[in-house]
Amino acid sequence: MNMKMKSVMVVMALSGLTLSMSGLNDARAAQLPPSGLVDLTYAAEKALPAVVHIKYVQTSKTRSVDVQSDPFEDFFSDPFGFFGNPGSRERGGTQRRQVQTPRREASGSGVIISSDGYIATNNHVVDGADELTVTLNDNREFSARIIGNDPTTDLALIKIDASGLPAIVVGDSEKLKVGEWVLAIGNPFNLNNTVTAGIVSAKARSLYANGVESFIQTDAAINAGNSGGALVNTQGELVGINAMLYSQTGSYSGYGFAIPTSIMTKVVDDLKRYGTVQRALLDIQGQDVHNYIDAQRSRGEEVDLGTNDGVYVAKVSESGAGADAGLVEGDVIISLDGKPVTKMAELQEILASKRPGDKVRIVYLHNKKRQEKTVTLKNAQGNTGIVKPADLDVLGASFKELDEAKQRQLGINYGLEVLKVNNGALKDAGVVKGFIIQRVNDEVMRTVDDLQKAVKDASTSKEPVLYIQGVFPTGKKKYFAIPLESE
């Protein structure tokens, strides 16, 4: 995914696809040579064995697509509609055609985080892959499977069947300082085991590319193929997962961005334990105070919030933790969990390390007066329980893609036929055998995979309900609302 920002592209550093996006402490000071220069060979030697090359393959598939037909071509090829399927479509309308999608390949990087084969990488490196091949630093190859992925942070956890692997030491990204030396390690342009050096240029950057982000900005060169690789400190500890580059050309031109380990550690642990991220929310909408003030000034309005730093609260959900803390529109959050908050990215980074049920101390300004409250964080569904992704079993039914004969019979182009209904959510809602599911939560259902994704997304959402639209074999249309129970 490419993203325009002030005419500059933010590119996911994934190689090979057009969808590619791309004060030292005493211990570190002890590693300085007499000249005073930082010796980065120690960090490179320590971290290189833990960084892997990931090859992504999406196999060729046959898919049904809607195409706009040419009315003149239709007339001259079949002026009376006698050939093919008369009445199956309007002249000049759309047709369903079978197309063969091309085989797609790409490559990226990953970091071994445990000796038994767990590897952290970016979601955009592995999302949609039919095959994943991991090549280690010693050139051994393994097939990998996806344990879990989180588009909101652009992180994923994959696994290879191996043991005794050289796992990297995970460091604390919160201790990083601007100006500190770091190494970016990965496989840019399929050049395996590449190391580049630079400094931390900034912290807690927002690029508006992910739902939750607080990037480490570095001038260590990051290029296509570096996605999912390691950003390490001078001790060879992992402090970030390389994710993006900032460029006018699509290639490196000065800055790259990495997801800090303060976010990564908790995300991959959740994916390993629960299969989805247990996201703790204040359930507010807001923006950086200085951005809010600038926006008001551009309208000719002067604003005095009592501070120029913090997160301006624009909206508060009635049932969320923010409301429990007494937050209202116009308040400014200045501290959370004992850490100063000067912008939204810092607030997101702190929350990303928490789980529903955790208690935090929130400090905010209300009418420029300081308020302090202890609040219990909640999940997207407004409680503190564990949210687990559901699968098709919860529906208690089996399905198949609607064949062309039934499509013609019903005058529709897609759908999933309910083959059998057992005990489960569909039976409880009154769905019967033969019903054709066409849309779920406003998403078109063409394949069983589409339905599986809809169930998973709904089960972990703020409103765990499936809104199903479809048609009976008689042609009668029907709508069902099916709640999904969460643990």
Total of DSSP H or I helical runs spanning 4+ residues: 11
Instruction: Give the end-to-end Cα distance, rounded to a whole number of Å.
Output: 34 Å
Overall residue-averaged pLDDT value? 87
Spans of at least 5 consecutive residues with low confidence = 1-8, 17-34, 75-91
Q: What's the β-strand tally?
A: 28
Shape: globular
Proportion of strand residues: 35-45%
Rg result:
26 Å
Walk me through the structure:
There is one protein chain. The chain is of the alpha+beta class and 487 residues long. It contains eleven helices and 28 strands. β14 (230-232) and β15 (238-247) form a beta hairpin. The longest helix is centred in the middle third of the chain and has 14 residues, at 261-274. The two termini are 34 Å apart.
